[in-house]
Each structure stands twice: as structure tokens, then as C-alpha cells.
TrEMBL record:
It comes from the Bacteria. Residues 12-68 form the XdhC- CoxI domain. Residues 186-328 form the XdhC Rossmann domain. Pfam families: XdhC_C, XdhC_CoxI. This is Xanthine dehydrogenase accessory protein XdhC. InterPro entries: MoCofactor_Util/Proc, Xanthine_DH_XdhC, XdhC_CoxI, XdhC_Rossmann_dom. It comes from Castellaniella denitrificans.
Length: 355
């Protein structure tokens, strides 16, 4: 999730002094992963690095820096969770603090623009040292890889728990992180009660959402940063233009439109998830119609209907939304496990996980 970028720019727009806190390196057990972020102003706090005493301590460091307004704009604090903070995790967390100023607007806007590309951007933060000025650089992944110094490479391979490394050439610590759009892309057809509830939930989760309906007046005035509204009379075109590996949920106000969208999706072989709102009765009726149109049974079987994680019962929109979100998160977790699995694994790995 990259809501921190918009929030940081919001603070700059309002001249609200703020400190960005990033989990830069995790050793052992910790409440959040490397890359997790929190933004702290004198009177407010956004996002989280795990709560508890760690977060309270980090917010205190940030506010002390805002009040004093002297010292470096970027620095590291290493906090042992057990001995120093009394947290049962027991690991060590290294936090990067960044006092944001108007001069930081450029790289923040570059990151936001870079999220329009699937490859995203690489952000590098050099803390500086003797004779070396601190710096922040944002570049495309291929440019960053070409410019990266071998001193930042981990000889044992990539370590997702460590974004902060010594740079022996420049003589300073450097944080290097990938800022990419989340690979889980969810396309929702329908801005009714369930669609509204589902977007509300997905707006807080690591995913990208395209929300489609012809009824422009049903969309709220503001949506979460990871949600894109498509008010269109040709929703079939959204299906045709969507990149491979997407998740699709059909929940419109019109069964005939639901059927047309389903038939359009059944033409594609690269869909990760295909959900249709409705009961078993609706599913049987649609299956009968699709078979009459010559659609193969194995294609029809891809439709998830009723939608939602099995065992979560209830017809209220909020309950359905939570059940569907759980189903999508299970799929996302399956993707992450496969991506992290060693390439030499002997057992074959399927491209998608069926909820």
C-alpha cells in the first residue's frame, strides 16, 4: 500500500510539518515487515508500523525532532523490542526517520507518477556521512539497477527483511526499496450496496481496484487512493482491456448485464478470479444458459458463485464484502508463497489458486 505518498504530499500542501518513519531492517520477530511506514505530525499520526510501545516510541522521536527542528533530516534508530520496549516479539527493528520538507516534493511526486507503471520505481535514500551529503533518488528499476553499487548487494541473496545496507563506495548507509503498484488487481462491476461495501474494505487493503458502473451518480465524491472509477456505458470494454491475472467481480443491478459480462469473461483464459454475486439458483440458471451457447463446462466451472470465503455467513453488504475480501487475500497470499518458493522446488507450481 502506498497511501503514505498521498498523505505526505497532503501534509506538504498544507505546510504541516511531518516525519516519515520506515521500517528499514527487521532482525528476528517484529510487529511489521520491512517497508512498513507511518507518518507523524505534531498532532496527528497516519498509518502504522505495528502499534504498541514501538510505535509510541517512534512517534516520540519524530515529534521531538519536529519541535527542535535541528539535527539531520534523516537518521536511523535501532530499537530492541524485548529489552528496551518490553514487547514480546523480541526482535530488533531499525527505523528510518525522514523530516519532510518542500524540497522532498519532487521525489514524492515522481513516486506517485511511477505507480502508473507496473514496474513502479526504486527509491534510494542515502544517509550521508563524512564528506557525503544525504540524498534521495527515485528511478525506474532498470536505471536503478544500472546505477546501483555492488556494495549494496547482499552476497547471500535478496533479503526482504533488510532494506538498509552499508554503501562502502559512498561511505554511508543507504535504504533501497521498490515502490510498485500492488499486483492484485480487482475489477468490480456494480456500484450498488455490495459494491460500495466491498470498495470500502478493499480501499484499506494491498490491492488496486477498478470500479465500473454506468450510473455515475452512485459513485461517492471521494474514493481511496487505490481505487479508480470507470463510469462507462460499455463495461465489456473494461474486460477486454484489463491486463492478465486480474480478479473480476460481477455484481450489477441487472441480471442480463451480469450474464453479458460473464460471457465476455469466459472468453479469457488469463483470469485469476471470476466472482458472480448471487445464489446457487442464479448459478444454475446461468450455467444452463452458458451450456446452451456452447460454452465448455470447464470454463463455466471457473465462476465463483456464491462469492465469498466459505463459512462466513450473512447477506448484509458488509458481511459479503468481508467474505469476498478474505477470498481475495487468500489468493494474494498464495501468489506470494509461490513467488517466494525456491525455483528448484520439485513439485509443480500452479499459476493461480482457486478460492
Amino acid at each position: 500500500m502506498h497511501a503514505w505518498i498521498d498523505q505526505a504530499l497532503w501534509c506538504l500542501d498544507r505546510r504541516q510539518a511531518a516525519v516519515l518513519v520506515t521500517v528499514a531492517w527487521v532482525q528476528g520477530s517484529a510487529p511489521r515487515e520491512a517497508g512498513a511506514k507511518m507518518l507523524v505530525s505534531e498532532g496527528h499520526q497516519w498509518l502504522t508500523i505495528g502499534g504498541g510501545h514501538l510505535e509510541w516510541k517512534a512517534a516520540g522521536f519524530a515529534r521531538a525532532r519536529l519541535r527542535a527542528d535541528d539535527g539531520p533530516d534523516r537518521w536511523i534508530e535501532a530499537l530492541p523490542l524485548g529489552p528496551a520496549l518490553g514487547q514480546c516479539c523480541g526482535g530488533m527493528v531499525h527505523l528510518l526517520f525522514e523530516r519532510l520538507r518542500e524540497s522532498d516534493r519532487g521525489w514524492l511526486e515522481a513516486l506517485r507518477a511511477g505507480l502508473q507503471s507496473p514496474a513502479g520505481r526504486i527509491r534510494e535514500v542515502g544517509l550521508g556521512g563524512e564528506g557525503v551529503q544525504p540524498w534521495v533518488r527515485v528511478s525506474a528499476p532498470d536505471e536503478a539497477d544500472a546505477a546501483a553499487d555492488v556494495g549494496l548487494a547482499d552476497p547471500s541473496g535478496p533479503d526482504p527483511d533488510r532494506l538498509l545496507r552499508p554503501d562502502p563506495v559512498r561511505g554511508c548507509l543507504t535504504l533501497r526499496e521498490a515502490v510498485r503498484p500492488d499486483p492484485l488487481h480487482v475489477v468490480i462491476f456494480g456500484a450498488g450496496h455490495v459494491g460500495q461495501a466491498l470498495v470500502h474494505v478493499l480501499g484499506t487493503l494491498p490491492c488496486r481496484v477498478t470500479w465500473v458502473d454506468a450510473r455515475d451518480d452512485l459513485f461517492p465524491d471521494a474514493v481511496p487512493p487505490n481505487v479508480l472509477i470507470e463510469a462507462t456505458d460499455t463495461p465489456e470494454a473494461v474486460i477486454d482491456e484489463a491486463p492478465p491475472g486480474g480478479c473480476f467481480l460481477i455484481m450489477t443491478h441487472d441480471h442480463a448485464l451480469d450474464q453479458r459480462l460473464c460471457e465476455r469473461l469466459l472468453r479469457r483464459d488469463d483470469v485469476a478470479y471470476f466472482g458472480l454475486i448471487g445464489s446457487q439458483t442464479k448459478r444454475r440458471k446461468f450455467e444452463h444458459r452458458f451450456r446452451a451457447r456452447g460454452i465448455a463446462p470447464e470454463r463455466i466451472a471457473r465462476i465463483v458463485c456464491p462469492i465469498g470465503e466459505p463459512g462466513i455467513e450473512g447477506k448484509q453488504p458488509a458481511v459479503i464484502a468481508v467474505a469476498v475480501a478474505a477470498q481475495l487475500l487468500r489468493l494474494r497470499s498464495g501468489r506470494e508463497r509461490r513467488a517466494a518458493a525456491p525455483a528448484r522446488a520439485e513439485t509443480p507450481v500452479h499459476t493461480e489458486e482457486t478460492p
